[in-house]
Every structure is written in structure tokens, then in C-alpha cells.
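tool=predict chain=A
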Amino acid sequence: MSAEQIVAIAQSWIGTPYRHQGATRGIGCDCIGLIRGIWRDLYGEEPEPVGPYAPDWAERGGEDRLLEAGIRLFGPALGLGQMQPSDLLLFRWRPDTMVKHAGIFVGPSHFIHAYEQMAVTRSVLVPSWRRKIAAVHRFPRARDS
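tool=predict ok
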């Protein structure tokens, strides 16, 4: 598994319609579903079940569930200066809110994400998006069987 392969998988999702809780390329996904689909392509199955979640899931319960899942599944966060194509980006809308969005950095200044009311798209990582990055994670190496 190389960074180029991960980027190619992410690019293959471009145009997939936005669907809350979806995780099927070409049919529909949200930002979490995009990451789940890439994970399945890389490792064959998802690491843990994802139960149903409401559109306002990040605002409920006071837990930073997406940030915690990033650490649990991908390992410790990297510094922004270590960001490389194929890395998982986690975003928070404001400094005092929970992480609520995810995408894949495809470099040098773009990322791929499922954008509500649009589709999976490649966006420019403009300063307003960069300021919202809460964590950068690298996909784990393929596990030995």
C-alpha cells in the first residue's frame, strides 16, 4: 500500500453523491463513509462497526468521538508540518467544538472529502480550511495475516 494507491482510491470516490451515513462508492457517502470505504479498499474490512448517527452527532454527548477514533484506529496525530499526500485530515469548525469533518490530503494544496449537499469532491486547502485542521493521521501499514 503506497500513498499513491490511497490517493487513487480517494480519487475514485469523486462524484459519489452525499448521503448521510452512506459508505458506498458511486451510490452515496458522507465524510465518515468516504474514510470507511477507503479503509475497506485497503484492508478488506472495517476495523469496527459504525452504528447509526444523527447529523448533529458531534454536538451531542460532549465526547470528541471522531478525534478519539482517529487516534484509536490510525495512531497518534502528526504535526501539520508532517502532512503528506494520503493522510487523513480531521477538521473542527471552531476551536471550541468537536471534530466533525474528515478528508484525505492529496497534495500539494488539495484534499478530497464528502461535502454536504454536494458530492465527494476535490477542494483547495485554502487558509480557512487549514485553520480548521484538528488532526493529521497516516493510514496504518497493512497488517500481516
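The chain is about 25% helix and 20% strand. The beta strands are 23-24, 28-29, 88-92, 99-105, 110-114, 120-124, 133-137.
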